[in-house]
Every structure is written in C-alpha cells, then in structure tokens.
Design brief:
Layout (H helix, E strand, L loop, with lengths): L10 H9 L5 H16 L4 E4 L2 H12 L5 E5 L4 H9 L3 E5 L10 H7 L4 E7 L8 H8 L5 E5 L7 E2 L2 E2 L6 E5 L12 E5 L5 H10 L5 H17 L2 H30 L3 H9 L6 H11 L2 H18 L5 E3 L6 E2 L5 E5 L4 H10 L11 H8 L4 H9 E4 L7 H17 L3
Parallel strand pairs: 2-3, 2-4, 4-5, 5-8
Antiparallel strand pairs: 1-9, 6-7, 6-11, 8-9, 10-12, 12-13
Helix pairs in contact: 1-11, 2-11, 3-4, 3-7, 4-9, 8-11, 12-16
The protein binds pyridoxal-5'-phosphate.
C-alpha cells in the first residue's frame, strides 16, 4: 500500500542518527545551527522539541498577553494552541480560495490597533505572497511570524522561506518534508527581540532519556514502515493514532479557550530543546534539502499534468513563490470526499483529509469562514513524498481519475 507520507531518510543517515547515541546534544545542535546559517542563510536559529514549542517561544518573546494574534482559519490547530498558550487572543482570517493561504482581503478587514502579531502559514509548503503581505502590514505596528512548519525548502523571490517576517518557524514532525521524528526550529530575523528569545530558550529543559528514546523509535519505525510492502500492516494504526491526536488537540484547544490552567501548564512543561536524534536526522536531510524538495516538485508536476482537472482544484502558487509540496492538497469540486477516500484506500493508496477538526473550533468561536470551511470539508491530500517511484505516480493519477470519474456527490 502506498503510504500517505514517508520519511525521506537514507540508510546512511540512519547510521548517523544511531551514532548520536554516543554524542552530546549541544554538539549536534551547534552543527545544526551552522547548517541553517551557511546553507539556508538564517543567522539565528533555535531548536526545540516541536514546531508548536517554537511558535510558543516566538509569541512569548514578543509578549502577546491579551493582544490579538491573527491566524489563517484553515491551518493546523497547533497554531491556535500556541497562541492560547501564550495568552494571546486568536483572530481568524479566512483563507484565499485559490492559494489556500491567508486571504489578504479578509486580513485588511481584521487588522486593527489591537493586533500585535500576524501569523502567516505557508500551507502544504505553498509560499504566502510576502511582498503583498508586507505592503498591507506596513501601516500597522505588528510583528510578522512566518509559520513555515510545512515549508522548509520552499522559496519566495529566490530566498528560502524563513527569511521573511520577524520570526519564522519550522516543524520536523512525522509527515513533514524534513522529519526528525519530532522537533522544530525558530528563526529570529528581528534582532530587537533576540535577547528575549535567548532568555526563554536558556530556560528550556533538555529532553529526558525516555523522550529521546521515543524520538529514536519514531524515526526508525517511520523509516521502516514508509515501504509499500510494510505500510499496509500499520495503516489502520496510523489512522487511529491520527484521529486520536486530532481529537486530543481539539480538546486541548477548547479547554485552553475556557482558561484551563492545568492543561496549559502541562503542555508548556512538555516543551524542551530538540532531541539529539531529531537534530542528527534533520542535519542529514538539510545537507540534501534541495534534492529532497526537487523530487517532490517533480512528483507534483507529474500529478499536475496527469490528473483530471474538470473535477478538482489545486493550490495556486504566487508568482515569486516556489512550492515545497510537503502535501499535495486538492479540492474535490463535485465528488463525495468520504467515498473517494474510501475507494482510494481500497485501491491501495492512502490519502488524507486535513484539518477537518477545525470546524469544531469555528463552531466554538461562532465564526464560519466560508473558504476555510469549504477546505475543511473538501480537501484530500494525495501522496507526494520522496519514496514514490514513477510507477506509483502513474498508479495514483490513474486510480484517482477513475475514482472521481465514477463518483459524484
Ligand atoms: C502550520 C503548522 N504550524 C505549526 C505546527 C506545529 O508543529 P509540531 O507538530 O511540530 O508541533 C504544524 C504541525 O503540523 C503546522 O502544520
């Protein structure tokens, strides 16, 4: 069965990750900082145990208590969670129906003197139109955070994402383009807040031995089960785990909205510096980042030229943008997503629905953003990862065209 996502980690890199057993983490983190500086051009980067922790660190350093933080409505719930953990007030802005990223029109309506931060998310690796965004933000006293959790290796105007905004974050969670079995990075471009970041970062604990072992286990199992022959054995487990994690995330967000301090403290205590195994894994993949991303771009190009566009819509990339395709999200125009998904799985291709759970959050805040709601209900992500071969892509495109051709809502 073709996995929905896969770890693009080589055998050689697995050996390096295992060698981290005998290394200390500060040495690996320092190597990672150097590779982010010299390869990607980021002068100041900090490495934590998740993208959420990185986002939280940025928001805490800015200080958003009681202030509005604008976020795109169609995104990973972790963004909402980080804002609530930092005591900010999340303000949802609808997304654009063509790029699936923050709608600049709706943003103009929601920006005000109460806004402290705008978080721009490069959804599925698709860059936000940063020059257009900056032009809008120019007349406001706000900070810009580029949430590039899904967009490591994507570019805008020939620069890697991470270079735009006062801060940027990346995630190395399972299923990301570059995976460390968990982990995240915070890039600081605004030197005025650097001291605050350094202070908060220095207070973060090291991961425990148990947490380190868990990360290693995740990397090794992801490496092993990314194979077509083995993935079928664990697909249902992956599905159950994803449903469970999404449910937990929604529960936490709803509790945080209602001011539950126990949930908040527990979550903040879970944040730490990055595990040495994640650091070793990311280090290996950064060395061949362009190669990893280019492979996914080739896969996307192939799908784009072989899918039947009468019944689907794909993300548009801004003129200066270069998509990293951590996901290949498509909107089904007239087929039932549930039926299409079930049929694809029966045919041996695992496809995902993304962020449908955000509907529960919109309900809670009593705001139904039209485009984001449509995406929550109609998006399906086809496999795009680096472990796919040409024959897999042929199979995915042919099967998908056949399935949507025969199924209407
Ligand atoms: C846009 C976005 N922001 C933040 C995060 C949080 O990253 P992590 O899962 O590493 O905490 C994610 C994770 O999927 C994400 O997609």
């Amino acid at each position: 069965m073709i996995p929905r996502v896969a770890a693009d980690v080589t055998r050689k890199e697995i050996t390096e990750i295992l060698k981290a057993l005998a290394k200390n983490s500060s040495e690996l983190i320092s190597d990672l900082e150097k590779s982010f500086r010299f390869q990607l051009g980021f002068k100041k980067s900090f490495f934590l145990n998740s993208g959420t922790a990185a986002l939280y660190l940025a928001l805490k350093s800015i200080g958003v208590e009681g202030r509005e933080v604008i976020i795109p409505a169609y995104t990973c719930g972790a963004v909402v969670e980080a804002v609530l953990l930092a005591d900010g007030i999340p303000v949802f802005v609808d997304v654009d129906a063509s790029t699936f990223n923050i709608s600049l029109e709706d943003l103009k309506r929601k920006l005000s003197d109460h806004t402290k931060v705008v978080i721009a998310v490069d959804l599925f690796g698709n860059p936000v139109d940063y020059y257009a965004l900056r032009e809008i933000l120019e007349s406001y006293d706000v900070y810009l955070i580029d949430d590039a959790a899904q967009a490591l290796g994507a570019k805008y105007d020939n620069k890697y994402l991470g270079s735009f905004g006062d801060f940027a974050i990346f995630s190395f969670g399972l299923g990301k383009g570059v995976t460390g079995g968990g982990g995240g990075a915070l890039i600081v471009n605004n030197n005025d807040i650097l001291d605050k970041v350094e202070e908060f970062y220095s207070q973060l604990r090291e991961p425990s031995s148990f947490e380190n072992v868990k990360v290693l286990y995740k990397i090794l199992s992801m490496f092993l089960f990314s194979r077509k022959k083995l993935y079928g054995f664990i697909r249902e487990r992956v599905e159950r785990l994803t449903v469970h994690e999404d449910q937990e995330l929604v529960n936490r967000i709803l509790k945080l909205f209602s001011g539950d301090s126990i949930v908040k403290d527990k979550r903040i205590k879970s944040f730490s510096k990055i595990s040495k195994f994640s650091a070793a894994a990311v280090l290996g993949q950064i060395a061949r980042l362009d190669c990893i991303v280019n492979r996914r771009r080739v896969h996307a190009k192939y799908l784009l030229s072989n899918l039947n566009f009468e019944r689907i819509k794909v993300q548009e990339c801004p003129k200066l943008g270069e998509h990293a395709y951590s996901r290949f999200g498509i909107v089904l125009k007239c087929s039932s997503r549930k039926t299409v998904r079930e049929r694809m799985i029966i045919e041996g291709i695992d496809v995902e629905e993304m962020y449908s759970y955000m509907l529960k959050i919109y309900e809670y805040v009593n705001y139904m953003p039209p485009n984001a709601t449509m995406l929550c209900k109609n998006i399906l992500c086809l496999p795009i990862h680096g472990r796919l071969e040409l024959e897999d892509l042929d199979f995915i495109a042919a099967t998908f065209n056949r399935v949507i051709g025969s199924h209407k809502s």
